Amino acid sequence: MAKYIQGATGEWEVVIGLEIHAQVSSEAKLFSGSSTKFGSEPNTQVSFVCSAMPGMLPTINEECIRQAVRTGLALGCKINLRSVFDRKNYFYADLPQGYQISQFKDPIVGEGVMEVTLEDGSTKDIGIERLHLEQDAGKSMHDQHPTQTYVDLNRSGVALMEIVSMPDMRSAEEAGAYFRKIRTLVRYAGTCDGNMDQGSMRADVNVSVRRPGAELGIRSETKNVNSIRFMMQVIEFETRRQIDLLEDGGEVAQETRQFDPATGTTSSLRSKEEAHDYRYFPDPDLLPLEFTQEFVDDLAKSLPELPDAKRARLISEFGVSEYNASVLVAEKENADYFEELLGELARKTGQDKVKIATQAANWVIVDLFGALKKLSKPITDSPVSIVHGAELLALQIDGTISGRIAKDVFEIMLESGNGPEKIVEEQGLKQVSDTGAIEAMIDEVLAANQDKVEKYRGGKDKLFGFFVGQVMKKTQGKANPQVVNQLLRPKLDG
Amino acid sequence: MQIFEDQERPEKMSVDKTTVAKIADLARIAVREDELEPLAGELNNILEWIEQLSEVNTDGVVPMTSVVEVDLPWRADKVTDGGYRDDILANAPQTEHGFFSVPKVIE
Amino acid sequence: MTELTKLTLAEARDGLVKGDFTSRELTEQHLTAMEQGRELNSYIVETGEIALEMADKADHMIKAGNATGMTGIPIGVKDLYCTKDVHSCSASHILNGFKPKYESTVTANLWQDGAVMLGKTNMDEFAMGSSNETSYYGPVKNPWRATKENGELGTKDYVPGGSSGGSVAAVAGDLAIASTGTDTGGSIRQPAAFTGLVGLKPTYGRCSRWGMIAFASSLDQAGPITKTVRDAAIMMESMASYDIKDSTSVERTVPNYEHALTQDIRGMKIGIPKEYHMDGMPKEIEKLWQQGIAWMKDAGAEIVEISLPHTKYALPTYYIVAPAEASSNLARYDGVKYGLRVEGDSLDGMYKNTRAEGFGHEVKRRILIGTYVLSAGYYDAYYLKAQKIRTLIAQDFAKAYEQVDVILTPTSPSAAFPMGEKSDDPIAMYLNDVFTVPASLAGLPAISVPAGLSSDGMPLGLQFIGRAFDEETVLRVAHVLEHAANFTAKPKVWWGDK
Ligand SMILES: [Mg+2]
Ligand SMILES: [Zn+2]
User: Fold this and answer.
1) CATH of domain A435-493
2) Rounded mean pLDDT of C336-352?
3) Residue C209: closest CA among chain A residues belongs to which residue?
4) pTM of the full predicted structure?
């Protein structure tokens, strides 16, 4: 389904390609033994190798190779049993070697196709061109001194995976869905922590526009965009800017741009004339990287269940709705929490998982996620344990407390950290199903509201809810609503 | 191969001043305007001498990647290096607060 | 006790172990000779204090019965090796004042075995040169001078060859018992030939490159420069090692090379490549080569004519590959982390000024060539083509080694030449390496052995090229040739007080 953008002179189509840089999860750097830890004092995680001292040589970290292969497998791409490290030559203050070791002609991971799901539930295939391993640069700080730039090489040499898409995306939404899915996958595979705040994932965003069906237009490349929201803003802005330019009879320049989060706009960084000539050639300090299919197969076996498979299983095995399943699998930890909770709940209630899965999913997605969002806490740091969550749901399922009371109990759980059974017990929140007691209260309510009883009997059916509410109020919500309904109706109808 | 008598070197100038300036810029070497012409001459001499390689048929020849037949050794993922900032900065022309310091980069 | 500086490495080793003299005495005599020989400019820095400390340590090792072949032996170290806290600048101004906080693997191996560092030897800047005239620290003088027609020693200064010019001048002038060199296209073998010494370039991967300031990564190899073949065998064993810090280092046990010196080469097949007979080559070089062939025959070897058809392309191939790699290897010299910084109006300005002032002309020329051949649109025509021809050159050798065990050639097409003679013509200079470069491109072990003198009394060398990792055969045939040639000439001392 093509999505065209209406311009002043007709329709336009936007074409987007992404180069995502994902930091490999590893203890040590790609070509040196120094640490990758985030947030250390400047230049403390630097070796003679990652500061490019004369005579220093790179040696490759085997875990980074495995991580790249795992990622390639998770993305469904072809794994290349032989790849080559090249030098990409350019000068910059935070590039100590004067070149970046990267992979140019022969990357470790080749082509693949990834299916993403859009908001309207439709799916779209997006091609992946390649994934290659490369070194990160150091960090330049321009705002510490009026005339100096400070350089910290702690990041220098940290392994990155550059995941290059085909120019297959046609909207910011598609690009967002693609980026999110890649993030989900690398997190599932455990190959990148996906932590955007710390720069663990960032994207170079290539945008061009064209008349529907025409040849590809000239693209701009906006560098180092470090959030999905920003990336979508870049696309919206660039699309508009380029269409306006073209409709005014101008031309789009092939250039590198940068994004300003404060204004949501992009600006030119370098034109093509100034563009680098990287003079790639195979790094003579490194031999070609080779491994066997068996090595790849072993890594494939060790991969966890991936989100697509997991989503399908949640739907088919437990009858979770498609929407809920998609939400749950977006983060592996969420899906894990849900599955463990469901298991615990089934054990507690003796019920079939299929019967209770929807209730459990709703509680996780609505109540728990809502609370975690307010607390800004990840699920791995949830104040409500899986056992307590299951207890709470079990109390509802066996009728001990009502849904209303459950919400109160949950609040108390969040504040106190206590278990729901204890809270219900101590605060006397058990549901009242004793018909005698409820009947007495109904009588009291009817006596106190004779006028409304008259109106009801005069045909105002809607007042039934009012009486239910009054009875519930009298029992502080503890009355079993079903019992209230059963007893109230005959009394009102007289 | 004639190695001692002056070889005939064609007059053809494949590298001109502009190209030399461009290469020097890529290599980040300041070259004065008056050095460009002589440099172009020197580079052309060498390039024209190198040109004889074009007579070799290399169809189907695999380019050399390494003269020794060995496998790339893999290193374990362990932190074994770093943590000696003073040694890293010891030879730097300018440092500030544990950073290398360079003329401000304007972006 | 007299003239310990005249000893060979093997003689010094034996004398030390026997207790005829101490390493301190041996070292002190060398330090004095170095002082006397400063005119040669073979050392950039002398490390007398360190040397004496190391000598004392070596004397302890010897007393404790822990001596190895290198224990107590005073050597010169090419400035290209990083030596901890000691000037290591590859004779370039751009590394101005650089004192690394680490020790190269090769020198660490030597110190581990008890060798003694006399100082850092001069060299062509970044090892780019064949005459040692490109050093920021000035040219090195060859201890040898040509004799005039009347038989008197001339007064003209000769180049020692390059790039390990300081290393050879130090050994030839008896300012070191031996020295480390590095060889990228002939930088050990050609200067050894120019100074009447033995120079061994082992197989690529035999010595670790870790801590050697890189020139051309796929070609650079460490090796010894010594007075005799036996000395080369002893020193090679110490320098070689497998090093996990160098991905191109090869995991193989290092043999006892001295055991290879059996003097028995009966039945060995020695290849004579027909393409090495070059037009215009001086008659005396051709004559020397024929003499070498005759000696080998006399020793019972079988001479086989072979063909290395791509020989003529080796030099231009080298002058693509080496500058290309160098242009990238030398990008790290940018005034940020170490060495020279020349301020500019911006970061780029600082880079450009630093590199303009820090690099000498030959280095700049090679960086520019290297940058050009790698630049957009030229990669395939130059670099990729060169690497393909490199494959063909390696295949030539592989084919030859199906027929022969080792190859005999001249080391250099001429003897040492007077200073300044070839400095204006880079290609004429490059041609010095015409016989050494092919083995470098193929990564093969090769040795230069002094074999005679030119008509005006300058040393000439012959080269053996062996199979990969067969340094033993190379040393064995070199040892036989050394004996046959009985090269005993020494330069007449014209420097210092004498
Ligand atoms: Mg990119
Ligand atoms: Zn990248």
Assistant:
1) 1.10.10.410
2) 96
3) A55
4) 0.92
